[in-house]
Amino acid sequence: MSHDQHDQSHSTAEVFVSTMKTFVLPVLVVVGLIAYIAASFRPQMVTTSNPNEAVEARIQKVGAVEIKDANRAARSGEEVFKAQCSTCHATGAAGSPKFGDAAAWGPRIAKGFDALMTSALKGKGNMGPQGGGNFEDYEVGRGVAYMANAAGAKFAEPKKPEAK
Predict the structure, then answer these.
(1) Tens digits of per-residue pLDDT, 34-90?
(2) Tag placement on the chain: N or C end, fewer CB within 10 Å?
(3) pTM to 2 decimals?
(4) Domain extents for the chain?
(5) Alpha carbons 156 and 77: distance in angstroms, whole number
(6) Distance between CA atoms of 56 and 147, rounded to whole angstroms?
(7) Is 127 helix (H, G, I), strand (E, B) or coil?
(8) Rounded to whole angstroms, what are the CA distances from 82 to 35, 99, 140, 156, 158?
């Protein structure tokens, strides 16, 4: 009878070890891997080895105010093109229509100036809003008119809005 109890306790131990090997151990490995991967996405902790740097990191500004000169001269379409649009439109990068390519610009011009302006201001395809530039909307419109007119359109260059 003691031999039966020994076999029963031995089989219970085997079941426990088997359960640990087949369920608990893999779960712990997966949890460990997730923790390891998640650690790479955490922001870097600022050490206290440089207290001034640590304070600057904690109190960094959240936003910024930009004051623009309302009296600055408005940029022409050509200036806007050279400053921002030429990055892609001069070479046709990322599928953009090349400057002066009437065949590529034709279907776009046919949709009208407002459709081109919407694409330029909001972005389209690989192009971000304003092509990533920092211009007034009417200046972007001047750039659009400049590029479209070089491909055969007859759009008027937008005027600077009157100050209120």
Answers:
(1) 888 887 776 665 556 677 877 887 787 777 777 767 677 788 888 888 888 888 888
(2) C
(3) 0.57
(4) 2-58, 77-150
(5) 11
(6) 45
(7) strand
(8) 49, 11, 12, 19, 18
